[in-house]
Amino acid sequence: MTLDMRRVIDPDTYFDHNLPPTNLQWAHDEVDRFVKSQSPDQRIVLVTSGGTTVPLENNTVRFVDNFSAGTRGSSSAEQFLAQGYAVIFLYREHSLQPFNRNYSHNTRGILSYLERTSEGQIRVKREWEEKMGRDLDLYQKYTGSKLLMVNFTTLSDYLFLLREVSLLVASLGPRVMFYLAAAVSDFFIPSHSMSEHKIQSAGGDLTLRMNQVPKFLRPLVKNWAPLCFIVSFKLETDPELLGPKARHALEKYGHQVVIANMLDTRKCQVWLFTKEASDPAIIQISKEDQDAGRDIEQDLVEELDRRHQQYISNGQQQ
Ligand code: PAZ
C-alpha cells in the first residue's frame, strides 16, 4: 500500500463534500441544553479524546485508524470536573471514558470484578468495592449536569461535531476552554473519491491516494471560537521535531497553549508552549507517583486551570 498525500482542500470545501454524522442534530440539541443549564459564570471545557478513523470505502469495511486510547482525554475530563468545570467530552466511540476507564479496557474484563454471593446475588468483589464505589459516585454526580458525552468515529464525524460544538459555545467567550487531545488524522479520502463498496483484492496490490486534511485549528481560532482559551496537542515520535513543530503551531494559529508530548513518554512528561515564554514549562511525574495511581493529567489540568483563570481575568490579553 502506498500513500499519495498531495492535494490540499480548504475547511469550507471539506464540509461541502463530506456527510455529517447521524448524531449531529442530537449533539446540537444536547450541547445547547447543557450549556444553557449552566450558571452564567460556570467555566466549560470541551475535551476531545481518542483517535479518528478514515474510511477506505463508503460502505466501510476497512479504515485507517489514528493512535489514541483516550487515556489523556478521559483522565483529564475527570480532573477538569474536580476543578469545577462543566465538561463536554467529545470522544471516539469505544475509547476510554471518564470514571469507567478503570474497568472497561484492561485485560481483565468487567466480569472479573464481580462475584456471586451465597444467596445468589451478584456483587462487586470486596477488593474493588471502595475504588469502584468512589468512581460510581463521581460518575453519577456529574453525568448529565456537569458531564456531557458526545461520540464520534470517523474524521468527518469529528470535524462536523467539533464545528457544531464550537459555534454553540463560542458566545460564552473566554470562560470556555478547548482541550484538543484527540488524535486527528492528517490524511483522508474524500467521499466522492472513495470506492462505494468493499475494495476487491482480485486486482493485486492496493495503492491509496489520500488528500491532506485541511488545518481546522485555523478556522477554530479565527472564526468559530475566537475568544475562547484554546489548548492544542502535538504528538511526535522524533524528539528533534517536537519543539519546532509545537512553536510553529503557536505562531501559525495564534492560540493560547500547545501541549507537546512524545509517544513513548506521554504518560510521564509533557511540555507546555505559549507565545509569552521562550522556554516551555515542563510537567512530569515520577514512576513512584504513577505506580501510586497518580496521573500526569492532574498536574497538567491544575496548571491549565490556573492559566485559564488568568486568561479570563486578563480579558483575553494572555
Ligand atoms: O489517548 P492517549 O492517552 O493514548 O494518547 C494521548 C495523545 C498522545 C493522543 C494526546 O496526548 C495527543 O498528543 N493528541 C494529539 C495528537 C496529534 O498530534 O494529533
Automatic annotation (TrEMBL):
<protein>
    <submittedName>
        <fullName>Phosphopantothenate--cysteine ligase cab2</fullName>
        <ecNumber>6.3.2.51</ecNumber>
    </submittedName>
</protein>
<keyword id="KW-0436">Ligase</keyword>
